[in-house]
Design brief:
Tetracycline Repressor, domain 2, about 0% strand, 2 domains, mainly alpha
Length: about 240
Amino acid sequence: MSERVVPEPERRRRRPTKHGVVLSRELIVDTALRLIGQHGAEALTVRRLGAALGADPSAVYRYFHSTDDLLLAVADELIGLAQAGWQPTGDWRADLRAIGMRIHSAYQAHPQAAVLAAHRTTGRTHETAAVEAILGVLRRAGFPDREAVRIYHAFVDQSLGFAALDAAALALPAAAARADLEVWQASYARLDPATHPHIAATAHLLTADMRSSGYPYALELLLDAAAARLAAAGHAGTS
């Protein structure tokens, strides 16, 4: 999809496509998200989108300048899905935990798109709302601004990093995913205690724990660290 800007007044198509729908940015993004889930990154072409929409592929240019423009819209949609329905409770730990788990769940629901989009910065509506919400939680909790920004950065990178990692695992072919899990039982659980005493001592725990995401525990570690820093900041402010 090459760069091609269609003047704003010409962007909206009012006539239904041959599938009986009227094109919109939202419909194109939803269709792109579905196609990426079915076919991976190669689905993000105007030809595939046009076929799925029942429209001439060039119609996509009325709404998006390029495939990267569309990918950023898909990335922003994932952020929007993670935020949908969230409301702050006033308990900063509970609020951050809920946001983090929502991010992780939304990306797991769309693993192919998550692999493509988790590392992108969109600057669009859903992303800016998420940044505002998370910083609001931290600042209202009493974190100094510099600390709030640093915790925001660590929190978001941790959430998206695990989301992308776990999404990549989900996107593996089933046989490859099974083989990866079996390594813990077939290889690690059989290592000689004489050469690998620490693995041998914990092999039964490793085999069980590595079957699920490490994100919930990692999130609690981050929240514990943030709470300790908030307490320290409070003491520093009263000393």
